[in-house]
Amino acid sequence: MTAPHLLDDLAWRGLIAQSTDLDALRRDLDAGMVTLYSGIDPTAPSAHIGHLLQWLTLARFQQAGHRPIALVGGATGLIGDPKPTSERTLNDRDVVAGWVDKLGAQLRPFLDFSDDVPNAALLVNNLDWTEGLSTLDFLRDVGKHFRVGRMLAKEAVSRRMESDEGISYAEFSYQLLQSYDFLELYRRYGCTLQTGGSDQWGNLTAGTDLVHRVEGRSLHALGTPLITKADGTKFGKTESGTVWLDRELTSPYAFYQFWIQAEDAMVGTYLRAFTWLSHEEITELERLTEEKPQAREAQRALARAVTALVHGEEEVARAEAASRALFGRGELGELDAATLSAAIAEIPSYTAERSERPTIVDLLVGSGLSTGRGAARRTIAEGGAYVNNAKIESEEWEPADADLLHGRWLVLRRGKRNAAGVELAGT
């Protein structure tokens, strides 16, 4: 079967929210290799899954024969794109430089930087062409091409202007800096397309306008949609915060769980945007979701694909083993300490003191699995109490050192679906 045109594939995957002239972009893509870029600002020590969408979009262009440039904003990261509600906290230069390095290392696995391919990806830092630029030169060569009225019309700017806090000149000028990136990348590498989230559309088109004014060349911009949950809330956030790509900030197990808990209404959207599965595979998974939602085949495929992409197949296997073991379908003792700790972090847990010699009744009540001691005793009598997947039949049962997983944890379960973790502290 013939592969679809890149733009048709992006459209089918729901990845085109806004664009300059799509017909012109199609003609340029068909005429030969196009160089494009997408940028990320180092405002944290890790990228999150919103950034992953942009990197995968670059990768789709590269797979179709085009040359991607991944820009990490060592300069723009010192200022920050205007937030809708408040002024950004400016980070120390050394901190930002360290984050630049971390983000660069994170994105490398998603693109092909090999010297032996004609469309090898490039990794650039906009501090390289911004740091030596004088204020006078920037105002004369860049600032004169911008009209304040159009800049004020940008939603993030207008909202801040209407707030009590207002907006600083530094954040107001961010649009000029990002536009200058496009101009420099056009001059240095012949870059003619910028991609980014639709919330960046004003910045993307400001870049095309600047290049047109300075160089007389019409370039392209393509905005991807902001992926949200079914209720419209921002995608990539959980109750505990952002879903990071860094395993130290979001464990591979928690990362896997985020995807496997996707709502039925949105799982097809996520499969199209975040995986390399074919149209036929995704269509079949969408059909299964509609006909047999309880099987959650699409969620499992999504969790496997994205976790493998970010953390590797071994972490997928660990996450799946932990999920099975927590609910009695695998061996808890076979999980490594990091995976077990991450899995317990995703279920209710509490700390008990060893010196108090808690019984199974105490543990069931303390963990919240039972509402009281009477309920705990009934659970035990009915055969529904488990510790580390072993049934507990005596109300007087107390954990021994040999019962502790990695010397500290117990996993309690009431019935098949209700689990909790207990950390035994003290000696």
From TrEMBL:
CDD domains, per database record: TyrRS_core
Gene Ontology CC terms: cytosol
Main location, first listed in the record: cytoplasm
Any one biological process term the GO annotation gives: tyrosyl-tRNA aminoacylation
Transmembrane regions: none
Chain location of the short sequence motif 'KMSKS' region per the record: 234-238
Domain Tyrosine--tRNA ligase SYY-like C-terminal: residue ranges: 342-418
Keyword annotations of the record: Aminoacyl-tRNA synthetase, ATP-binding, Cytoplasm, Ligase, Nucleotide-binding, Protein biosynthesis, RNA-binding
General function of this protein: Catalyzes the attachment of tyrosine to tRNA(Tyr) in a two-step reaction: tyrosine is first activated by ATP to form Tyr-AMP and then transferred to the acceptor end of tRNA(Tyr).
PANTHER family linked: TYROSINE--TRNA LIGASE, MITOCHONDRIAL, TYROSYL-TRNA SYNTHETASE
Name of the protein this chain belongs to: Tyrosine--tRNA ligase
Protein species of origin: Actinomycetospora succinea
Gene: tyrS
